[in-house]
Design goal:
heterotetramer, A mainly alpha (about 280), B alpha/beta (about 240), C mainly alpha (about 250), D alpha/beta (about 400), A: mainly alpha, MetI-like fold, 2 domains, globular, C: about 250 residues, mainly alpha, two-stranded antiparallel ribbon, 2 strands
Chain lengths: ~280, ~240, ~250, ~400
């Protein structure tokens, strides 16, 4: 009985992935699908030659990394502020309220956040309207493009919004756990400024302690779909948008290349997850 | 009589227990002297039924226990830190073994109160474990095991984490109660004095091999029992 | 001073989308450049007249509650099987990360064929099964943090006192794991509640949860309705959050 | 310990392979025995459930289905109609996946399709037919009208039933814009005069505009009628891309991106980011004004170069197991009653496919009294500027080349 349940767990974890990859592999090599005419590498070669594989990879990883870096920097500052290093403890802004508010994004589904940010950032959105009333712009075309742009600014903003509370909480908790407050006082008595401590002790220590979590979030960010779908530009597509797009495009001949990309993405994620687990192992096991 | 024969246990290539033999007359206590890593915890877990030996037998009054699951053995394991159920009161902790055995609540209550009196915890029955001191907790742990009159009690350095005074008191209490309840026990410790105080017979576990000594004299003569060193120490400071 | 400004900027940043959602859900004729159109509660009123969004909310609630209870139960059973009375290899648990790491929409696309073959495509049961690929491993991973050395030793102790496995689970494991069970129920509910990709692909437009509705309303540019859906989406997590916050702060007072 | 794991892994690996190879047998369609006479069909359809997949991107259309069609069907025939959301490409994807999975029956009984969706569904043999002539109301259809009997230059051959007929229109705000471009040359100039104020969506509607432009580049648009011609496409698309390339810096966002859907384009228009939007439904402007989405000063026009008029259709998947129910539903949707309801601009504003001369005098009278829409020119007028849909390959090629030559550059 116990053994059976154990195998059930293994199946539950591996079967969806294996089944999916095998079908996709079949499709991408012309072995499955209604329009398949037997084994061929054409779809793979086509995908690589079109540059879409490289472009999507770079674009997706770039967006993920940017979002992560900005969110981490912001979260470091937030956790530093909420830790009240070098500030009187009875400091002004009510601690609990601000700290509760920072958790607000946790309530948002990615699709909700993407929709709201679209309405805020688009050239006809809230910020543009406010700028208009403030006399900063006179018509919408003067407003900088923040959504559906090629750089993915809107995507990054939305991602940062979604993960900022996680990292803020994580950093605050880590700092608390490792008693960085005491280290701070220690470093003060040694004559270091707050900024110096922040730069040389606080940041490196928190980053080092949470490297694995950051890696895990990078993996998650590579797979976000709703945010780039609503906020992304038309020129570059992230993995998931590309895949979903190809699989449901009118051109039935495009479907295999969608499956090629799906395999490439799955392999990438599997390797990254395996690295994460190995990393965890070297520390824990 | 409790007889343990040829118990062996290996983890991979590491030998933990090597053909351990031992016997304890019912109602008496055998002290087992062993350093950490000598295999004493594994031995106790095997006897409690929490781990399976590679070979060997464990016979209580002619009945083979080695293949019985832990809950059917009535052999209670008492560890160094008192493992009290944190979500239950002292009363419920003490009554636990009896409830499992479906004892009617009137007899149960009587038994628990008597025992609580004997271990000096009558005033604390409604408290939760985190409200007790270390010594009190160990007393609950001990009472909880004794109350079901187990076939055998396995004590794994039960007083190691207590301070010297409490420890002394606990030793006295244990001797007192175990005589009253006619408990058969195997008492593992790394403290020679405790081994001498608690045991009727003795043994030393070294790297998975056990030597038994049925009289105090034989035990003291053993060079690695540490008794000689203890005596020399006291002599040297006189 | 600088730090105060920084704090206010961050706080504005995190609260903007909520304000946007609430504003848009009560506005009509939101034409540029008017900041807020005419205020109306019309978009909420339709919810009571059997509007599609009301239906979506119920579907979402039903799916999320089912997933929450079922995954917690199955996760708990698997967890007991893996951990009870022994130390499990972390290697086995590590498998639980894989379905969790892959993008749901990609996973769904790759599995669509099998769901079709099994007749589960575009059905509620299909969506439930697909979501369980994520929630059950998650529940198992979450429960694995419960099995501390202390728990394992306490259950061993109870066994030597005569308690059978089922009694140990009832008397010791269950009461001690209440916090994990609560957490698991909440988290699985939220995962399912916030899920879009798998539900869209495997549900094939026939299982219209709130997230699916928001996406289709947003791409139809039905702004006000999408905003109402967003506000509805925010409700259950806010409630859970408030309860949790109450619990934590009331514990702090003790 | 290791061996059972390996065995398990082997099973896991093999299972999908086995299930894939099973899928290669030829799919059998369910009983093709749809009765020949209508009364039997009607009896069998009584009380059944019909699943319909259609684009649900419009509030009014959804309302028409939900508040009118569904209750009427259950009232008249006891049929329960279940409508699910799915655009053309999703319909193709779904039916194709069902065939790939070797399903015996489809989950869908009716699909709302046209143009390349029809073309592709025919390609993969996913449609049941011919069935149109079985429908009693088919007699009322205006099959002489090439805009109805031909779908993207492909004869419908009874494999899909016309449902509605629409023409592409351009929508503008009469307060903001007065000089309206009438052909591609004027458009280029207009865009230069109004930089950043025009764009189109990278979807069906946007491509329909490109198609209209493409056809207007030829002296006689009718050269595009008939089968796809590579030469024709190459010649005129070269001109088209060159012109768009010139136009590009003056487009919205300097032509660096295009809205992904018509809805996004509508939103740009509503937000005042662009001066024009467009629609394949000539009643859209009235619809959107009545919903409070568009400003009331919005108007529609059809440029002199002409725009594409086309019809949309209903098909029955080959694997549907309730074809009789589907036939009954489609027959109802073709009825004068349902068509009349649908053509009111407050309801949907969809052009009818019925030939009015064949209707009973009562219905003819009713139709004549139908309130005209107020913000778009009358249908009779705009259909003078109607172009036929060219073959579906033009659309597919335009899509691909637009992405390669414009978006990704």
């Amino acid at each position: 009985m116990r053994r059976a349940i154990k195998y059930l767990f293994i199946c539950l974890c591996l079967a969806p992935l294996l089944f999916g990859v095998i079908y996709s592999l079949g499709y991408s090599l012309g072995l499955a699908g209604l329009l398949s005419d037997g084994f061929t590498w054409d779809y793979w070669i086509g995908l690589i030659n079109s540059g879409n594989l490289m472009r999507s990879t770079i674009y997706t990883i770039g967006l993920g990394a940017c979002s992560l870096i900005i969110a981490v920097m912001a979260a470091l500052v937030v956790s530093w502020k909420s830790g009240r290093y070098g500030v009187d403890h009875r400091s002004s802004i009510s601690k609990s309220k601000a700290e509760v508010l920072i958790l607000l994004p946790l309530l948002f589904a990615p699709v909700t956040a993407a929709f709201c940010w679209y309405q805020i950032l688009s050239p006809g959105g809230f910020i543009a309207r406010a700028s208009f009333h403030l006399g900063l712009i006179h018509e919408t075309s003067e407003f900088p493009r923040l959504v559906n742009d090629d750089l993915g600014i809107g995507i990054v903003i939305c991602h940062v919004f979604l993960i900022l509370p996680v990292f803020s909480y994580l950093f605050t908790a880590t700092a608390h756990k490792h008693r960085l407050h005491r280290l701070y006082l220690q470093s003060n008595t040694l004559g270091a400024s707050s900024w110096y401590f922040f730069k040389k002790v606080y940041t490196p220590m928190l980053l080092q302690k949470n490297m694995r979590v950051l890696w895990l979030y990078l993996i998650f960010l590579l797979g976000t779909y709703e945010v780039p779908l609503l906020l992304g530009g038309s020129r570059s597509q992230t993995f998931s948008v590309f895949i979903a797009d190809k699989l449901t495009r009118f051109n039935l001949g495009d479907i295999p290349s969608g499956y090629c990309m799906a395999i490439w993405y799955t392999v990438l994620i599997t390797v990254m997850t395996a690295l994460y687990l190995r990393w965890q192992k070297s520390i824990l096991w | 009589m409790i007889t343990i024969k040829d118990i062996s246990k290996n983890y991979g290539n590491t030998v933990i227990l090597r053909r351990v033999q031992l016997s304890i007359p019912v109602g008496s206590c055998r002290s087992l002297l062993g350093e950490s890593g000598s295999g004493k915890s594994t031995l106790l877990k095997i006897l409690a039924g929490l781990e399976k030996p590679d070979s060997g037998s464990f016979i209580y009054q002619g009945e083979e226990l080695i293949n019985k699951p832990a809950e059917k053995r009535s052999v209670v394991y008492l560890s160094q830190d008192p493992l009290l159920f944190p979500h239950m009161t002292v009363y419920d902790n003490l009554a636990y073994g009896l409830r499992v055995r479906k004892m009617p609540s009137s007899t149960l209550e009587e038994k628990v109160i008597t025992l609580a009196q004997q271990i000096g915890l009558k005033e604390h029955l409604k408290k939760h474990p985190h409200q007790l001191s270390g010594g009190q907790r160990q007393r609950v742990n001990f009472g909880r095991s004794v109350i079901i009159t187990p076939r055998m009690l396995l004590l794994d350095e039960p007083f190691a984490s207590l301070d010297a005074t409490t420890r002394g008191k606990m030793q006295e209490l244990y001797l007192d109660i175990s005589r009253k309840y006619q408990i058969t026990s195997l008492f593992v410790t790394h403290d020679v004095r405790e081994a001498l105080i608690m045991g009727d017979t003795y043994g030393i576990l070294r790297n998975g091999s056990l030597s038994c000594y049925d009289t105090r004299a034989l035990f003291i003569q053993q060079p690695d029992s540490g008794v000689a060193e203890e005596i020399n120490f006291w002599k040297s400071i006189q | 001073m600088v730090s105060r400004i920084a704090t206010y900027i961050v706080l504005t940043f995190v609260s903007l989308p909520l304000l946007a959602a609430v504003c848009l859900s009560v506005t009509d004729s939101w034409f540029f450049p008017s900041f807020i159109g005419s205020i109306t509660l019309e978009h909420y009123k339709v919810l009571w007249s059997g509007h599609e969004l009301a239906h979506s909310t119920l579907v979402s609630l039903a799916i999320a509650s089912t997933m929450s209870i079922a995954s917690t139960f199955i996760g708990a059973v698997i967890s007991v099987a893996l951990h009870y009375g022994r130390h499990t290899t972390p290697r086995l648990l590590a498998l639980g990360y894989f379905p969790y790491a892959i993008a749901p929409v990609v996973l769904g696309s790759m599995l669509q064929y099998y769901f079709l073959r099994l007749g589960l495509f575009g059905s509620l049961s299909g969506v439930l099964i697909a979501q369980s690929f994520i929630t059950i491993p998650f529940a198992v991973l979450l429960f694995s943090t419960f099995w501390s050395d202390n728990v394992i030793r306490l259950s061993a102790q109870a066994r030597t006192l005569g308690a059978s496995t089922s009694i140990v689970i009832k008397d010791i494991i269950f009461p001690m794991s209440k916090r994990w069970i609560y957490l698991c129920l909440v988290q699985c509910f939220l995962i399912s509640w916030l899920e879009y990709g798998l539900t869209r692909v495997i549900g094939a437009g026939e299982v219209r949860t709130l997230t699916v509705s928001i996406m289709s309303l947003a791409s139809q540019a039905s702004i006000s309705e999408a905003a109402v859906a967003c506000c509805l989406m925010l409700l259950p997590p806010s409630l859970i959050f408030m309860i949790q916050y109450r619990m934590v702060s009331s514990q702090a007072h003790l | 310990m290791a061996s059972p794991y390996i065995r398990l892994l082997a099973i896991l690996l093999l299972l999908p392979v086995v299930s894939l190879s099973c899928g290669s047998e030829v799919a059998q369609s369910p009983s093709e025995n749809v009765p020949a006479d209508w009364s039997t069909i009607a009896t069998q359809a009584q009380g059944s459930t019909v699943h319909m997949m259609m684009w649900q991107g419009d509030r009014l259309i959804n309302k028409y289905m939900q508040d009118y069609v569904t209750p009427r069907l259950s009232e008249l025939y006891g049929i329960e109609l279940i409508v699910t959301d799915g655009q053309g490409n999703q319909v193709v994807n779904r039916l194709m996946a069902e065939l790939e999975a070797n399903r015996k029956t489809s989950d869908l009984d009716i699909v709302w399709i046209n143009g390349e969706t029809f073309y592709q569904l025919r390609q993969i043999d996913a449609l049941y037919g011919p069935f149109v002539q079985k429908l009693p109301h088919a007699d009322l259809i205006d099959l002489n009208n090439p805009f109805i009997s031909m779908d993207f230059q492909q004869a419908i051959d009874g494999y899909e039933c016309p449902w509605g007929n629409v023409q592409m229109i351009m929508i503008y705000d009469s307060l903001q814009t007065s000089d309206l471009p009438q052909d591609m040359t004027e458009w280029s100039r207009w865009v230069q005069d109004n930089p950043g104020r025009f764009t189109w969506s990278n979807d069906f509607t946007g491509m329909t505009l490109l198609k209209s432009w493409l056809m207007s580049l030829a002296d006689d648009p009718s050269v595009f009628y008939g089968e796809f011609s590579e030469d024709l496409y190459t010649t005129y698309s070269k001109q088209l891309w060159a012109r768009i390339e010139n136009m590009r810096p003056y487009l919205w966002n300097e032509g660096r991106s295009f809205p992904a859907s018509l809805a996004q384009l509508h939103q740009l228009y509503v937000n005042g980011e662009v001066d024009m939007t467009m629609s394949n439904n000539d009643s859209e402007v009235d619809n959107k004004i009545s919903q409070g989405v568009f400003p009331t000063t919005s108007r529609a026009y059809v440029p002199a170069m002409g725009t594409i008029q086309n019809s949309h259709y209903l098909g029955i998947p080959r694997l549907s197991d309730n074809k009789v129910g589907a036939l009954q539903v489609i027959n109802f949707l073709l009825s004068p009653e349902a068509q009349y309801e649908k053509s009111q601009s407050a309801v949907w504003g969809d052009g009818t496919v019925l030939d009015r001369d064949r209707l009973s005098p009562d219905w003819q009278a009713k139709w004549t009294g139908l309130a005209q829409r107020s913000h778009a020119p009358p249908r009779e007028e705009i259909s003078k500027r109607a172009l036929q849909e060219p073959a579906p390959e033009y659309m597919i090629r335009l899509f691909e080349d637009f992405r390669k030559r414009i978006i990704e550059q």
